[in-house]
Write a structure and sequence with these properties.
heterodimer, A: about 120 residues, mainly beta, 7-stranded mixed β-sheet, 11 strands, B: about 110 residues
């Protein structure tokens, strides 16, 4: 059974940093692109970033370029999102998802709140 | 960047009726790269349709997708109480992007 479990969310002040993790199991992690998708409270879905199987390609939505960094550790079946210079508008539930273009599998999400 | 718009924003129907949800892309999207998701409150999205018209594993056949170019539809026949939710389209031909969603509510 495919499982994706996010962790690392919480309350952070504007300008602060946070690192999200996603633990993957039930599939060959190193064979798939992976993505982070977020959802602000009461709003729609927004793709944030994705990373190729070997980590050699990474793409980001314009609003997080230069502030967020996606990475992965295939030996540990783990996906990360380092978030720096956080803003109020980054407040959202962050989901990791297995990326086959479409998203067959999602985690349960972790809430990031940016507020003073 | 491909921008997706969805209409209507809210659709009010009764159980047993048919729902037709629309997704329009700002530029042509190969039907191979268009997906639909259902999301209920407090839950992660669930993939319904991929490649414009292919049902994902375990999705009932009352859900159907169609379209090409810039215009795509999700049709739900014989609405069941559990179908009332928010629906998103997504393109994956150029990067990734989602539409703003259509809320399907009980009339």
């Amino acid at each position: 059974e495919v499982q994706l479990v996010e962790s690392g969310g919480g309350l952070v002040q504007p300008g602060g940093s946070l690192r999200l993790s996603c633990a993957a199991s039930g599939f060959t992690f190193s064979s798939y692109w992976m993505s982070w998708v977020r959802q602000a409270p009461g709003k729609g879905l927004e793709w944030v970033a994705n990373i190729k199987q070997d980590g050699s390609e990474k793409y980001y939505v314009d609003s997080v370029k230069g502030r967020f960094t996606i990475s992965r550790d295939n030996a540990k079946n783990s996906l990360q999102l380092q978030m720096n210079s956080l803003r109020a508008e980054d407040t959202a539930v962050y989901y990791c998802a297995r990326d086959s273009g479409r998203y067959n599998y999602w985690g349960q999400g972790t809430l990031v709140t940016v507020s003073s | 960047e491909i921008v997706l718009t969805q209409s209507p924003g809210t659709l009010s129907l009764s159980p047993g009726e048919r729902a037709t949800l629309s997704c329009r892309a700002s530029q042509s999207v190969s039907s191979t790269y268009l997906a639909w998701y259902q999301q209920k409150p407090g839950q992660a999205p669930r993939l319904l349709i991929y490649g414009s018209s292919n049902r994902a594993t375990g999705i009932p056949d009352r859900f159907g997708g169609s379209g090409s170019g810039t215009d795509f539809n999700l049709t739900i026949n014989r609405l069941e109480p559990e179908d009332f939710a928010v629906y998103y389209c997504q393109q994956y031909v150029t990067s990734r992007s989602f539409g703003p969603g259509t809320k399907l509510e009980i009339k």
